[in-house]
Amino acid sequence: MDKKIEKTFLQTHRKRLLLGVCLIALAGVAYGYSQSTHSVRSQSVNLNSVTISPVIEGEFVDALALRGQVVPKTSIYLDTIAGGRVEERLVEQGSFVTEGQPLVRLSNTGLQLDVMSREAQVTEQLNFLRNTQMTMATSRLNLRRDLLEIDLQINHLERRLKQTTPLVEKGVVAQERRDELEQDLTYYRARKELTLERQQQENSIREVQVAQLEDSAKMLQKNLQFARENLDNLLITAPVTGYLSEFNVEIGESKQRGARLGQIDMPDQYKLVVQLDEFYLNQVQLDMPVRVALESGEIKAAVSKIDSRVRASQFQIEVNLPSDVSSIKRGQSIEIELMLGGNRNAALLLERGGFFTSSGGNWVYVMTENGSAAERREIRLGKKNQKYYQVLSGLTAGDHVITSNYSQFDKAHKLVF
């Protein structure tokens, strides 16, 4: 006999139970998701831990806050003209020296030997010149003596010929004697012409030779003078009056020719050397105004030089300081403001702060009207100066912005205080 099988409660309501479990699971997932989303979008913050700054409207001074290093405006370097060994150090680094004051004494044996050799060459050349001049003078005197003798012979022959001619006509003296006298007279007259020509040629050659010897002697004397000056340069003196800011010499040390020994800084003449980011390379111009903050007060200066060579993403400018500026030292760092220009009288200004490091100036947290929260808002910033950013869009005058660092906010969209 068959027995009726009855369904249990679980079997009867299985589908409903499964549907209920699924609904409960979905509700739990949705609740968890809503809770996690809420925790990312908002974050509780202590109001005392943030800095709040208002957005104001005012004049935007386009200035760049920088630090410049004081360096001498004019420096004279000390280099060795002739190298040598340091024998004596006459002053110390940092001393005030006057023009012509001895600083250091060097010795150079090779240079001393060179001077002695040049002196011997000059002496030898001068002696040769004197001997040549004496030989030429003797030759000149011999030629003059020969001319005198020739003139004497010509006078004797002319007189004898004059006396012999009547005697030949009378038949007292033979014609052959007269012919001999005429031949001798012709010979001595020709010899005189030859001697005069020789004298003229020797005078011309003598003048050229003497001029060459004198030029050679002068050249040797100049070389000797140059060598002696090099010898004198072993005693190095101060070329100008000023402060001996660097002096790198030690007794017994050998210095090569052209080696740098130190430098002298002109007194009461300074300038500032300032390093700028390459971003400002196209904005900086010569004679651009600069405000220099000193202990005695603020002074006005101008950009005097721009070195456009970029090193380590920076370039260098120089600012000349007035000569009457006191209480500054070489190497001192001074705060300055570089006036870039383009000031705006009516601009939205936001104080500078740590927020820029986190947001890059692309967004900020703006306080709500009741001050209980702050919401993230996209903005656009322009130029910056020492105190403010110029706001181009996204904010209005009167808005209050959190300007402290955002690193602890984990990029929340809303801050609840």
Tally of helical runs? 5
**Structural class, please?**
alpha+beta
Helix content: 25-40%
Specify the overall morphology: rod-shaped
Using brief descriptors, characterize the structure shown.
417 residues; alpha+beta; 6-stranded mixed sheet; 6-stranded antiparallel beta barrel; 5 helices; rod-shaped
Structure description:
This protein is of the alpha+beta class. The protein has five helices and 24 strands. The protein has helices at residues 9-12, 14-41, 109-170, 175-232, 355-359; strands spanning 42-44, 52-54, 56-60, 63-72, 75-79, 84-89, 96-97, 102-107, 235-237, 242-247, 254-255, 260-265, 270-277, 289-294, 297-311, 314-320, 333-339, 344-351, 363-367, 373-378, 380-384, 388-393, 400-402, 414-416. The strands form five sheets. Strands 1-24-20-19-23-2 form a six-stranded mixed sheet. A six-stranded antiparallel β-barrel has the order 4-13-16-15-14-17. Strands 3-18-22-21 form a four-stranded antiparallel sheet, with no helix packed on it. Helix 3 packs antiparallel against helix 4. The longest helix has 62 residues, at 109-170.
SSE order and pairing:
Layout: H1 9-12, H2 14-41, E1 42-44, E2 52-54, E3 56-60, E4 63-72, E5 75-79, E6 84-89, E7 96-97, E8 102-107, H3 109-170, H4 175-232, E9 235-237, E10 242-247, E11 254-255, E12 260-265, E13 270-277, E14 289-294, E15 297-311, E16 314-320, E17 333-339, E18 344-351, H5 355-359, E19 363-367, E20 373-378, E21 380-384, E22 388-393, E23 400-402, E24 414-416
Parallel strand pairs: 1-24
Antiparallel strand pairs: 2-23, 3-18, 4-13, 4-17, 5-12, 6-8, 6-11, 7-10, 8-9, 10-12, 13-16, 14-15, 14-17, 15-16, 18-22, 19-20, 19-23, 20-24, 21-22
